[in-house]
Amino acid sequence: MCRYAMVPYKSHYACFNCRKTFKRRLINDIKRGEKSVLEAKCPQCAELMANMGLDFESPKKDDLKKWEHIKSLYSVGIGFHSCGCSGPGYIPNSKEKLIEYFDELRGIYLKNIDFWRSRIEPANKQEKDKDYQKNWLELGKVSSNSKKEIVKNQQGIIFWLEKVKEIESKISLIK
Description:
Elements: E1 12-15, E2 20-23, E3 50-53, H1 64-75, H2 95-118, H3 125-142, H4 153-174
Antiparallel strand pairs: 1-2, 1-3
Helix pairs in contact: 2-4
């Protein structure tokens, strides 16, 4: 529920088979012990539906291209989730834009790898403190405890390589 809203919003669930959407009861509205608390099944075909979020607006039932695009967005983890006030953020509106978006993210991740490859690792507490003052943002992305520990370059490289692999996996799902 949005902190500014007086009523709770209900998530929109989509059935990609039937190309229909439904709002689902909130967990608070469901009786405890009811079997369907975690599952959202389509009332028409009984298949599991996808939680598309509060800000989802379904395309027309006969717009197969848009439904296919929505399905591909969902398959790579992009939904329309927010509190209903600020919107879900950037949602690419075509397959090409989605690939372009992931390519841009991959470029950012590769630049982060370059940072870790060129960074001089601190050898003592004084160098660590200086490194933290200069690079706190990059260190914080890799380690939540970066102020107390010396973050190794290899640790940063591995972190960003995993991010690149995730993006490349998502791109391969789309293509």
